[in-house]
Design brief:
The complex is a heterodimer of chains A (141) and B (260). Chain A is α+β, with helices and mostly antiparallel strands. Chain A is 15% helix and 33% strand. In chain B, helix 2 runs parallel beside helix 5 (113-128), helix 3 (79-92) runs antiparallel to helix 5 (113-128) and helix 7 runs parallel beside helix 8 (232-241). The chains are: A alpha+beta (141), B alpha+beta (260).
Chain lengths: 141, 260
């Protein structure tokens, strides 16, 4: 996927997640994770979202990937430090090699690291930036 | 400046803690200078094991597995992967616990905490590198992955063989493999778009149908275990004319058949 194709997908309006996003702890796991959630889109690409939440660290990620391509965009809130982008940053596809390299580029997003903010607060920003409609809630089980 | 053995220790001493903070659980989070392949610094955590006595567990807190999950690689999915994980852990004296890789620390470990951190970080990096053996694949990458499997197993194979089919059409396959006593014709089956899987399956069925009275080799269909939308009835139809294997889940069985 090229940067142009990524931007076209990002800008595509009315991408949709129709159901609740459930994040749960699998047996013998430490980090809460969602299943792959299909994001309906007019290009009919297999665009999916995976959400993770680490309660001990208060770190969560929203990871968008395309089947057959790999990860194309990821919001990391209070995660591992990435370059000069700090612990809260956004990765996005810059070249067609980026999915293979698990999105090496990242931009700091201090605006997403506010005291008292919730995962829902960040999700609203993600939806807005991704032109994504979510008809449901985030449910941590 | 001339470098010699005497001064090397001073020149090569680095801190393994780039930054340090305390997270919600009370664990100490340490950003190390080691990185995952995408450039993220590897965090290691010191989790207090007991409020009564000063003992800790050094852990990756599940982040190695999460990194891999985000690229569609399930670390414990196959028996082979689980064996590799066990080998790495044994070699580096690291334990597995609830999806984490850990080193329990005793008092005597505290003075060489740096060594424990280096061992655990090395384990995390080695395990993450498993993903290079099988990335999230598109169709052509799946065929490449199967070819890699054939090469690693030292099979005698020829890529892209072509044969004349029953109805005058040319049938192109992915591989012709020579076993000990017989040959196999191999066609891979993967798809990035679930709306086209039925068509792709029918095309593979057509290939086997056109060759079935003309070739003596075993027909083998290798299906991408990570592809979505492949219907059970399509696989059953393919099984009427070929032996179907899911890859990588059934790679051992596939190897056995191809070697025969």
């Amino acid at each position: 996927m090229t940067r142009v194709e990524f931007e076209a997908l990002r800008n595509l309006p009315n991408k949709l997640i129709a159901d609740d996003i459930e994040i749960s702890l699998k047996k013998n796991a430490t980090i809460y994770q969602s299943k792959a959630i299909l994001v309906a889109n007019a290009q009919n690409l297999l665009l999916q979202l995976n959400v993770s939440y680490h309660p001990h660290v208060q770190h969560y990620t929203f990871n968008f990937s395309v089947k057959g391509v790999g990860p194309i965009c990821r919001y990391d809130i209070n995660g591992a430090i990435h370059g000069n982008a700090g612990r809260t940053h956004k990765h996005s596809l810059q070249t067609d090699r980026c999915p293979d390299l698990h999105l090496p580029g990242a931009r700091e997003r201090k605006d997403l690291d506010n005291p008292g903010q919730t995962i829902e607060d960040v999700w609203k920003v993600v939806c807005n930036e991704a032109n994504l409609l979510h008809h449901g809630r985030i449910v941590i089980k | 400046m001339a470098i010699n053995c005497d001064i090397l220790n001073d020149l090569t001493t680095i801190s393994l803690v780039k930054s340090c903070d305390v997270v919600a659980s009370g664990a100490i989070r340490m950003a190390t200078p080691f990185t995952f392949p995408n450039g993220s610094f590897i965090d290691l955590f010191l989790v207090p094991s007991s409020p009564m006595f000063p003992s800790y567990t050094l852990t990756d807190y599940g982040y190695t597995a999460l990194y891999l999950d985000e690229i569609g690689f399930n670390l414990w999915q196959t028996k082979k992967r689980r064996q590799v994980i066990a080998d790495v852990c044994e070699q580096l004296d690291v334990q597995q616990d609830s999806g984490q890789f850990v080193i329990p620390l005793k008092d005597e470990n505290f003075t060489d905490l740096g060594l424990q951190m280096a061992r655990l970080a090395q384990a995390c990096i080695r395990l993450v590198d498993l993903s290079f053996t099988q990335r999230m694949q598109n169709v052509s990458e799946f065929t490449s992955a199967v070819e890699e499997f054939l090469a690693v197993k030292h099979f005698d194979y020829e890529p892209d063989p072509e044969f004349n089919g029953k109805f005058g059409t040319l049938v192109k396959l992915d591989f012709a493999v020579r076993g000990r006593h017989s040959g196999s014709l191999v066609q891979t089956f993967s798809t990035a778009n679930p709306t086209t899987t039925h068509t792709a399956s029918n095309e593979i069925f057509r290939k086997w149908f056109d060759l079935r009275e003309l070739r003596q080799e075993r027909f083998v269909t290798v299906v991408d275990a990570n592809a979505e939308g492949i219907k059970r009835e399509d696989l059953n139809r393919l099984a009427e004319l070929s032996t179907v294997f899911s890859y990588p889940n059934e790679q051992d069985e596939l190897a056995e058949v191809l070697a025969a």
